[in-house]
Amino acid sequence: MSVCITLSEMDKATDKLSSASGHDTQTCQASSLDASAAISRAENTTYGPVMSTMYHQEEISEEEKTPFDRCQDGDVQWLQRELKTGSVSPELADSEGRTLLHWACDRGQTSTAVMLLQNGALPNCQDNEGLTPLHYGMSP
Questions:
Q1: How far is it, in rounded angstroms, from Cα 55 to Cα 120?
Q2: pTM score of the predicted model
């Protein structure tokens, strides 16, 4: 969203607002500048790639992290190593039936998802609710 107006246009709008509202020009000008600043802040705000449907964040030490934690964090190196040694399966699922790929897609971890697919993760596997990793990746 981009809003571009000249200062003279803003002054004209402020005068019209002042006349219509019964407030003095200075008050309306301050309100216009506040609105302009809010628009500018909104334009420059960076939002993450996803709004997780499985989100709950708590501090976990490195030793306590599960493969699912590693997927949500995008720890590709750890996952590659563990998949290579066979200590983690690309089909590993949590109690809700969500696989590592579900977790990676849910958190927007594209490189993790690609690596899991390259290592045999099943893209059409369904969790206990019948949702695939794509459902999680496409959720708002």
A1: 25
A2: 0.58
